[in-house]
Design a protein that fits this description.
Layout: H1 6-15, E1 18-21, H2 27-34, E2 40-43, H3 51-61, E3 66-69, H4 81-91, E4 95-97, H5 113-122, E5 129-134, H6 144-154, E6 160-163, H7 169-181, E7 188-193, H8 198-202, H9 205-208, H10 210-219, H11 221-228, H12 234-245, E8 252-258, H13 263-277
Parallel strand pairs: 1-2, 1-8, 2-3, 4-5, 5-6, 6-7, 7-8
Length: 291
């Protein structure tokens, strides 16, 4: 057990929580308006918008934030990797997240995350921090044992694991226990859906493109249903994650909040939770949002 009590763990998680944004028009302005400089912002990769959209948003945000662009392997051209790395380093990026991605690979792109990770190794590990994907829930297109083996193979080329969204704390515990039993010791950021407006979520197609939206819904149909139906509480789930974070063996390092570009709502929720921990009236200066 860690010496950190659950309330202290919760405060630590909320203070350092990452925000994931989609590379859509206007998202940079949203972040600048609602997020304090210095925070960590991750920028997803969009198969319909292309990798340049991710890089452009990352470059603009890197001036004020710790930015983590998603380098989806099947969108990254092998020949263009050195220039891509140079571009991000010039912008001051020190951390990347490397998933396989939803795009269909070509002969010119990397086949998957491990191949891209190895290519980054050949370039001398240009980014001190590299995240890989974890799957507490089954992936619709990949067998569980393949996912476990893949994580084991990638562990030496990464510095952290970011889990896909889930809603079941008991499932997260079982997954983390299995990961640790397998000998994977990388710290984990638990993926949590922010307190989003379901109506806005249903209009994702206008935000990130119809193709990306349909891919997301096919992959995350159970996740999506849990968001839009009553009963799920981001607040309750995060409190459960904090109780697990107090257990050192599970290795939870932080929260990864999926905002679906509802940045203001997600940040207001985070600040409200911190105010409650400090004994401050949440109505003072911070409007309460759905939790």
């Amino acid at each position: 057990m860690s010496n950190k009590r659950p309330p202290a763990a919760l405060r630590s998680l909320l203070l350092d929580a990452r925000l994931e944004v989609l590379p859509s028009e206007g998202v940079v302005d949203q972040v600048h308006e609602h997020v304090t400089p210095g925070r960590s912002i991750t920028v997803t990769a969009s198969p319909t918008k292309g990798l340049d959209a991710t890089l452009e948003v990352a470059e603009r945000l890197a001036r004020l934030y710790h930015v983590v662009p998603h380098l989806a392997a099947r969108m990254v051209p092998r020949a263009g990797l050195p220039d891509l790395v140079a571009r991000l380093r010039e912008a001051g990026v020190t951390e990347v997240f490397v998933p396989g991605g939803d795009a269909a690979g070509t002969d010119m792109t990397f086949d998957g995350a491990l191949e891209l990770l190895l290519a980054l190794e050949d370039l001398g590990r240009p980014f001190p921090h590299v995240g890989i994907t974890g799957y507490p829930e089954s992936h619709p297109g990949i067998e569980d044992h393949v996912l476990v083996q893949s994580m084991w193979a990638k562990r030496e080329h990464a510095t952290s694991i970011v889990s896909n969204m889930t809603f079941d704390a008991a499932l997260v515990r079982r997954w983390l226990t299995a990961v640790r039993d397998r000998g994977v010791t990388l710290p984990v950021l638990v993926g949590v859906p922010g307190p989003v407006d379901p109506a806005k979520l249903l209009r994702m197609a206008t935000t990130i493109g119809v193709g990306d939206s349909m891919r997301f819904l096919r992959k995350q149909k159970n996740v999506f249903a849990r968001i839009v139906l009553p009963g799920f509480s981001t607040t309750t789930f995060v409190h459960e994650v904090a109780r697990m974070a107090a257990e050192e063996r599970l290795g939870i390092r932080g929260l990864h909040l999926y905002t679906f570009n509802q940045v203001a709502r997600t940040e207001a929720w985070r600040l409200e939770q911190l105010d409650r921990l400090s004994g401050v009236d949440p109505g003072r200066g911070v409007r309460s949002v759905g939790s």
